Amino acid sequence: MAELIRGKVARVFDNRSVAINRGTKHGVEKGMKFAIIDNDADEIKDPDTGERLGALARTKAFVQVTVAYDLYSIASTYRIVDFSSLFSGPGLGIDSKTPETFTYEGEATKRLSSAPVQVGDRVVQDIRA
């Protein structure tokens, strides 16, 4: 099995798009998927002994490469969030399916759901189906 492509977020454009510091010279191709990982992993300790058991890295977002250049790539969120169960009923005029977004440093509206995506966050190729 080939080694997973790993890199970092090089730039955050908005709440859906980033540049990653890996491109075609590193094996990146259009359509490849990556997970953006929080650099601050949650430490897990044994509740009885206090011994450190390990750390759990949190995924901030999943992105897919839309354009791959030699040394970097542009990637955007691709998963669709379906709110249809929340907004059921005729005439509401609400699009219940919307692209997934992430928070990013400098975003005016702060959300409580996750840490913001920022330059330097780890990026790991996601090979799940």
* Secondary-structure class: mainly beta
Give the total of domains: 1
Helical content class: under 10%
> Strand arrangement, largest sheet?
1-2-7-6-3-10
Number of helices: 0
Instruction: Note poorly predicted spans.
Output: 108-113
Outline = globular
Structural notes for this entry:
- By secondary structure, the protein is mainly β.
- It contains no helices and ten strands.
- It has one domain (6-42, 52-125).
- It has strands spanning 6-12, 17-20, 33-37, 42-45, 52-56, 59-68, 73-77, 80-82, 97-99, 122-125.
- The strands form three sheets. It has a six-stranded antiparallel beta barrel. A two-stranded antiparallel ribbon has the order 4-5. Strands 8-9 form a two-stranded antiparallel ribbon.
- A hairpin with a 4-residue loop joins strand 1 and strand 2.
- Residues 108-113 have low confidence and may be disordered.
